[in-house]
Amino acid sequence: MTTDAGQGSGRGEPNPGEHRDEPVAPLQRGQFVAETSRPVPRAALSARAAAGLWALRVFAVLVSLMVIYAFIDQLR
Fold first, then answer.
1. How far is CA 25 from the centre of its chain?
2. Which run of H or E residues covers position 19?
3. Which of 7, 13, 17, 18 is the least crowded, having the fewest Cβ atoms under 10 Å away?
4. What is the DSSP string of 8-42?
5. pLDDT in tens, 33-51
6. Is residue 51 part of a domain?
7. Strand runs (DSSP E) across 3-70, as ranges?
8. pLDDT of 53 above 70
9. Which residues, 6+ apart, have CB-to-CB distance to 32 below 8 Å?
10. Residue 72 is part of which domain span?
């Protein structure tokens, strides 16, 4: 099977005249900006998922404090 030199190899590589930052959707740039600048409503989470996210936040703060403490301790 052969491919033409002017076409992409089929692995997501763009053709020479194609722009990578342009969306595939058939929207004009102004329409695309207007649609993507609208705020998205918060997702409805179960109580279990919300508790899990809060636990993850607390864990991240504790680990950050431990790293800061270890860094300051090594400065001495």
1. 19
2. none
3. 17
4. --SSSPPPTT--SSS-SSS--HHHHHHHHTSPPPP
5. 887 888 889 999 999 999 9
6. yes
7. none
8. yes
9. 23, 25
10. 46-76
